# Entry
Amino acid sequence: AQTVTQSQPEMSVQEAETVTLSCTYDTSENNYYLFWYKQPPSRQMILVIRQEAYKQQNATENRFSVNFQKAAKSFSLKISDSQLGDTAMYFCASHNYNNNDMRFGAGTRLTVKP
Amino acid sequence: DSGVTQTPKHLITATGQRVTLRCSPRSGDLSVYWYQQSLDQGLQFLIQYYNGEERAKGNILERFSAQQFPDLHSELNLSSLELGDSALYFCASSEWGTEQPQHFGDGTRLSIL
# Structure
């Protein structure tokens, strides 16, 4: 079974600065996808970014980018120019394509301070 | 607005009871997923349906069941409820499979008294 580990339960960052959230995963599959989801206080789950494991290029979405290290099974999220609206729980998730197994990490609570 | 609609938003019931949670996926999405988010166990994948058929099963208890109807809406049935079933239940949808981005509803908060 695959596992997803987020080792930082809480983090904080000053507005306009950069912060990196860590995620490691463990899977025996070769065909899988990785995601970062954001859950603000409103409790909605919002997709932040997605990475296909077969792609070497790191995914980027505006201020959000990932550092995907396949050999190390690491998938960190970098948030640049942090904004107050980035305050949320961030969940890393992994999906195995062959068995449709979807796992989430325990989450990192990020607080952006003015 | 994700386009995924979940009803009801809140549900309060007692132990031993049965409840049904409803989900309407985003227009055009064929896959529906159910998740349970509790304080002590984080976000757990329960089950996935694709175009009316069960596609994948996660940590879903035998007391729980789900189905997806021809109009693609889905229902999650929870029976013989226990205090530990208190959680936020999310429905999500995607066009096809789990490899695609999932769009989440606002969740149903279930409280067992």
Notes: Chain B has a mean pLDDT of 92. Chain B touches chain A at residues 2, 33, 42-45, 48, 55-56, 58, 88, 90, 92, 97-99, 101-104, 106-107 (CB under 8 Å). The CA atoms of residues 6 and 23 of chain B lie 5 Å apart.
